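#onboarding

Welcome to the new folks! Below is a worked example of what a typical request in this channel looks like: someone posts a single protein sequence, and someone else replies with the predicted structure as tokens. Don't worry about understanding the tokens yet, we'll cover that in week two.

Example request:
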Amino acid sequence: MQVKTPLLSACLLAGLTVVNLPASPIFGVFNLSGNITVSPTTIDWFNIGLTPTPQTATIGAGDTGSFAVGFDATTVTIMDLNTSTEPVGPTFGPDQFISFNAFPLFPTLAINMIFPGYSPPPPSGLTGCPGIPFPPGPVVVGQTCTPSANSPFTFTNTQGGQSNASFTFAGVTSDGGTWIGNFSADFTVPYQTVLEGLSKTGTVTDTFAGTITVTSGSTPEPDSWYMAASGLALVLLSLGTKRFFRRQQQ
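Example response:
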């Protein structure tokens, strides 16, 4: 019975040390995919076939760092964007952007930057967005186009009469880190056709894929209450050990 006092104190110290030690800031890379609907002023995310269907995306394979275990095939909630509150170019917010549905206590990602699209100088004799205004102009592989100064999308015509759109976002994590995300959407038609459809219907819907890289902030210092609790456990351990050895010597 006498052995239990120091043993209990040691267990108390171990429990405090393991349970209350602050977690390390998140870091690493994760991939996600889903569906996206774009209008001239909004970006709406949704994942067909999942419940709830709005504002979700699925994490893919190949994740690293804090996302290497347990995140594959889980979903995130990804908030819609509007140019009135999340403008292209200047920093804003930060506004809540991504949370992890399978891990509700995991740090979240907030967005504070939408980078403007960028079009390199077009091939000789072509303008940056041939065919705008419509009807569509000539289609050339390698053409790039950013529809306007407040657009985050860079369209590029690719082989086989196809095209893609790329866009980049950035922000901060709730535990003091930063992140940057590179997204893309692929189309089976030239971007001139995509933009013509946008002008007629007001929206474009497609699948998207994204890769988000999270960089941790500095490691936080242990909280003062944690240090005090650890100190108290050490005192209890010391007192219990002394009492144990005095009784053994009697």
